[in-house]
Amino acid sequence: MCGIVGYIGQRQAYPILIKGLHRLEYRGYDSAGIALINPAGELGVFKTKGKVADLEALVANRDVSGTVGIGHTRWATHGEPNDANAHPHYSQTKNLALIHNGIIENYAVIKNELKGHGYNFRSETDTEVLVQFIEYVKSSGNLDLFHAVQVALSQVVGAYAIAVIDKNNPDCIVAARKSSPLVIGIGEGEYFLGSDASPIIEYTDQVVYLEDEQVALISRSHGLDVRNLSDVEQTPEVKTLQLSLSQLEKGGYPHFMLKEINEQPDTLVNCISGRIDPAGTDVILSGVINNKEKFLNAKRIIMVACGTSWHAGMIGKYLIEDLCRIPVDVEYASEFRYRNPVLGKGDIVIAISQSGETADTLAAIQEARKAGAFVYGICNAVGSSIARATHSGSYIHVGPEIGVASTKAFTGQVMVLSMLALTLGKLKGTIKKGEYRDLIKDLISIPTKMKQVLLLDPLIDEMSKIFTYAHNFLYLGRGYNYPAAMEGALKLKEISYIHAEGYPAAEMKHGPIALVDAEMPVVVLATADRIYEKTVSNIQEIKARKGKVIAVVTEGDTVASSLADYVIAVPPTNERFTALVTAIPLQLLAYHIAVNKGKDVDQPRNLAKSVTVE
Q1: What are phi and psi of 438, to 5 degrees?
Q2: What does UniProt list as catalytic (predicted)?
Q3: Which end of the chain has fewer surrounding CB within 10 Å, N or C?
Q4: One-letter-per-residue 3-state SS of 39-63
Q5: Is the Cβ–Cβ distance between 406 and 305 less than 8 Å?
Q6: Reported pTM
Q7: Which of the following is catalytic: 167, 317, 426, 609?
Q8: Which helix (H) or strand (E) holds 521?
Q9: Peptide bond into 400 cis (omega under 30)
Q10: Is there a catalytic annotation at residue 609?
């Protein structure tokens, strides 16, 4: 959600900023802008509603020279998406320019105070209030920019990742963060800024992740100085990025989403690697084993997540309750943090997030830690805020996910939760040895089965053309297929803008069946499991109302297939892991319908990849 890029060094900043903004487009945005200090010492701000390409067109004949600059892609929070509300924002004197991710909660109070001091505002944003406030503090206290930022931020309530430049001091950038990610890349006599590592990796693999309430002075002449809001010097840890530039390219695919769907067999191999022994007889998830006593003594487990990660958590609930016999609750992080949950020592909270920066999930972690619960993180981004805020955890190791609609991160999360349940079940003795080994064997086979399902892409592509103009979809499943159905519905609505809902198949009779008619496509997950016959009964109920059924079945199926209008057959899979296999056709169906409708598959409207605000 929003993207930050910055540069200071000896090179021209503009090409680096523009390329960095393109790299950040996957995060979701509705306007873009840059600020540069040119060789004459003038501070220029260029910004526009729309895409980075629109920004490039805007500055085509403008002076964009200079070796220091900042850039931003904005996802609107305060104020509609337009040119005035786009970042960067000038201060009143136009000496300062600032970019900002996050939300300043007390901006209205500060704005009223500044109006009393004669300040005027050009936008509706909380960000402009912040840059005006920094300038007020700087001028009234006769402070330099760095100390003015410290003082101003000590009076701010909310979340922020900011970068500020001052035309009267063109040799530095001041950056700071709280509850919103910010990374500094260290080159040879030059520095780079990013809201994540994607704009940086092309130039350096040496980075510093700022911690909450840290302020960085990035100086061309004096290097990097990091302090907290109380001006206490901090010692930043320089880390080496485990990321390659090729992971950020489409690799010949028309969209990142299609590339990432097709990557899943390989990404799950990476996810398993080092965690299942070479003989395929044991799961070794160190985050669980190293905290064995906490897991063995857990009274219950609470999973907190949002969106796709919540659906993965639901599958995790079924797995842990089934294999470990521990009660599990799955909570939306956004609700969990506000409803005064009953938590305490002996509880385990598992926080799930692709980006590791989800604001609501981070807040839920803080609530859990305050209550004395043990917090375990499952995320994709190494060094992310959630990885640092939790007591322990597991990375899913699926590589950067650029498409906004999550695909490989979902299957990576489910794979880690599957290994967690197997590890804990073995520790607790709730899984018999033979069943334990059989389940591991089944889990190892998933990437191969995914490859088989990917061969169905032409069939699904043709099928999708029939449903391009549907207005509503219903997705149904039972047991492990229920959360998989919800995830399939989410994929469709995210990228095609077709209304879709996922339901437990039996609950269809308690309301949604009223919607079923000849115009209503219904996707039914009817793979072979303990309640297959019940699902077949639900298909019959749909057909009796003339609904159009797309059935995802197990290869060799005859009963559900004979009832359905359209059939997608997947390899036989243990029902506990079936969501890993059925995810592929549901992702492909959503993808092809969206492409047929001419939608922006990788950057669907109004959505952001990393949701760093409430």
Answers
A1: -65, -40
A2: 2, 609
A3: C
A4: CCCCEEEEEEECCHHHHHHHCCCCC
A5: no
A6: 0.79
A7: 609
A8: strand 521-526
A9: no
A10: yes
